[in-house]
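So, read this over?
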Amino acid sequence: MTHQPWYDHRPRQGAVPDNPYASGGHDGARTPGPAVPGSGPGPAVGPGPAVGPGPGFGPGPGFGDGPASGSGPGAPPPRRRRPGPLPLLAAVLALLLVAAGGAYLLKERAADRRGTDAAPGPSATASPGVRPPRTTAPVPEAERIPTGAELAAARKPGEAAAWIAQDPTDLPRGSTLAHDLWIVGDTVVQALYKKVTARRLSDGAELWSVPLPHPVCETPVDTTPDGRVVVVHRNRDSQQGSRCNQMRMIDLRTGRQGWHKELVQTGTLDSTIIVHTAVSGDTVAVVQNMKAAAYRISDGGRLYDIPKEDPGGCYPDDVAGGRRLLVTATCALGAEGKAYSRIRSLDPATGRVLWRHDTPKGRKLGKVLSVEPAVITTLDAEVYAEDWRVVALGPDGRVRGTVDARGKGFKHCADAGDAGQGVQNCPGAVVGPHTVFLGTEGRVGAYDLTTGKLLWGVRENSGRRLYPLAAAGPAVVVYEAATPSRPGLVRRIGPGAEKAVLLQRHPAAAGKHEYETLAGNLAYVRGRLVVGPSTVSGDDHRPVPRLLSFAP
C-alpha cells in the first residue's frame, strides 16, 4: 500500500480571513467517548507492528486541491429522515425518506453481491404469438454465516481474533433498521426489530435479550452514566396507523425493563410518525415533529417543554446528547432562500438555555459531530452536501473556527448516505479537543478546529473507505473498511513515518461478511472494533451478520 502525504498551508485564492463560515469563504465529528466512537477522546493506543516507512508520511509536495468547489458533478443530497418544515406532509415525506435510505443501502449491497448475474427479462425479439419454452429457475442455495469456532479454526498467523454473531429471529423481507451500538462494561448492546440484545465483547456470546411487543423505531446514541437507556418502539407491527410513541426504559447492565410511557399526540405539530431522542445525564429529550420535551430517565417523569422560539419561528427538529444536550431547530420556514438552523445548548436538568447559535441564512445544520467541544457541519440549503463545512463553536456558541475540506476530496460524513439515523450519526469524522479528523475513500486528514488549517493528511491507493475511530494525540485510529476482495484492518495514522502503525489485520475468513455490513455501525473500545450493518433484510438466502468484532 502506497501512502502519499499532503501538506498544504498555502492560502487559497478567494479565501476570506477571520470567519469564512459566516461569509461563505473556504478555510478555516461525533466525539469518541468511552462507550461509542464519537463521544469523547479515545483511549491511548498501544504500539503495534510498524508499517513500512516509505515516502507516504514524510514532508513533501501535496497532491493538489482537486476540482474547484462547486464545479463538476457534486455529491447527491444526503438522505435524511428529518420531519422538515411542514407538519403532516413533512412527516410523511420523512417516513418515505427513511424507507428510501434503507432501500438504497440494500440495493447497493445486493448489487455488490450479485455483480452482473441478474437474470435477463423476456427477449424483445421473440416472434409474436410464440410462447417461449417454460423454464424453472433454480432455487439459489442459502448462504451460510460461519460460526465463531470456524473463524478461529481458519485464522492465519498475523490475523486478528474475531467473532461473528447471527440471530435466528425472523425479520420482514424489507429493510429493517439496525440501531445504535452501546458499549456498557464488557458488553455490546444492539436494538434491532423487536429485541434488545447484549453480547459479551470478548466472544460475542449472548448474555441477555429483552423482547419488545413491536419494532424499535428510535434509539439515542448515548446512555446514562450508569448504563440506562430509553428506546422508543411502535404501537403496532403494521405500517398503517403505526406511531413511534412507546417509550421504554431498559437497564443495559442487567437487561431489566423499567418504566413504560406513551407519547401523547394532540395534532400534526407533535406528530409521532417519527421521533428523535437524545440522552444527557438523567434526561432524555424527545422531539415529536415540531415540538419537544424532556423526561427524567429514572422514573419517566416529564421535566420541561423545549419550546419553539421567536423571532425567527424556530421549531425544534432534532436533539444531540452525551456530555451536553443540544437541541436543533429549523427557522424562517417558508422564507425562500432565508431559512436557517438554530442550535441551543440546554441544562439537561432544568432546560435553561446556556447559549444559542444561528447558522447564516441559506445554510442549514447537517450533523452534530461533537457536543463538547460543540462541532457541527453545515450545508447549503440548495445544493446540500456539494457545499459543506465543519464549524467549531466556542463555549458561548460563537464560531471558533471553520474547516472547508472539500479541496482535499473529503465528502460529508464520508459520503455514507443515511439509512435513517439521527443528527449525531456521521461516519468519517472524529473530534478531539483541538482537532477534527476526517476520513473518506482513500484518505484521512487532521484539521485545526481554531484556524481551520490542515495539520496533516495521508492519501493511499487501496480503494478502501477510511473511518476515523478515536483520537490518539496528534494521530488517529482508523478503520480501513473491507472491500469485496480484501478484509478490513485498523491502523494508527498520523504525521511522520513513525506514527504509521498497523494495529490489527482482519481475518480473510470473515472478509466477505465484514464487507456485507458496509460499515453501517461502528464501535471502538479498548482496542476492539465492533462492526454491524445499518440495515438488515429478512431474505433468508442472503443473511447478513448482526455483528462482527475484531481484536489484536
In short: The CA atoms of residues 428 and 467 lie 5 Å apart. The domain at 3-111+146-551 is CATH 2.130.10.10 (Methylamine Dehydrogenase; Chain H). Residues 87-114 form the longest helix (28 residues).
